[in-house]
UniProtKB/TrEMBL annotation:
GO terms for biological process: carbohydrate derivative biosynthetic process; lipid biosynthetic process. Pfam families: Lip_A_acyltrans. InterPro entries: LipA_acyltrans. One of its GO terms (cellular component) is plasma membrane. This is Lipid A biosynthesis acyltransferase. CDD domains: LPLAT_LABLAT-like (cd07984). The lineage of its organism: unclassified sequences, metagenomes, ecological metagenomes. Keywords: Acyltransferase, Cell inner membrane, Cell membrane, Membrane, Transferase.
Length: 175
């Protein structure tokens, strides 16, 4: 559902730039980016560097990061459904560098088959002074809001990747 967020913002003349992985298959990469790009929506390849992303923020774009994936050893640990997960540092780091708010966007399919787009500003009050500690705290707060949303709409969440550490999946069959 998150793929609809960029086009919805664009329709309402809200400038946004989404950071995206480059697909291994160049035709798939082109296909998805053509769906995503519009007048007010840009796609920034993930390997563009933080300076490019920060410049988009300074230029008045909302920067979209998909932060629900397992970040591996590069992320920070947070509890998600009482189990540790690795959360990307990007959104928290950009907040600390630019002092911009962090908005969590959710695109929910309603029973009448239309989408409800909602944004929630993450509470960033009372963060630790040390940058690394602040990033961990921001990521835990983000993960808590994500968990609350998944609990409310469990049927709408299906990850195509492993959210938890591989150890969590031992003994579970994919079929």
């Amino acid at each position: 559902n998150w793929e609809y967020i960029g086009p919805m913002l664009s329709i309402h003349n809200i400038k946004s730039a989404g950071v995206a992985l480059i697909q291994k298959n160049s035709q798939s990469d082109r296909f998805f980016n053509e769906l995503r790009i519009s007048d007010n929506m840009k796609v920034i390849p993930i390997n563009s560097g933080s300076e490019v992303m920060i410049q988009h923020i300074k230029d008045g774009y909302y920067l979209g990061l998909i932060s629900d994936q397992n970040a591996g050893i590069k992320g920070t640990e947070a509890l998600f459904f009482n189990n540790p997960v690795s959360v990307p540092k990007g959104a928290a780091a950009f907040h600390l560098k630019t002092n911009t708010p962090i908005l969590l966007g959710f695109c929910i399919l309603c029973k009448d088959l239309h989408y409800k787009l909602s944004f929630h500003e993450l509470d960033l009050k009372g963060l630790p002074k040390k940058s690394d500690d602040a990033i961990v705290e921001i990521n835990q707060r983000f993960t808590k809001v994500l968990e609350e949303t998944v609990r409310e709409y469990p049927e709408q969440y299906f990850w195509f990747h492993r959210k938890w550490n591989r150890e969590m999946y031992k003994g579970i069959s994919r079929y």
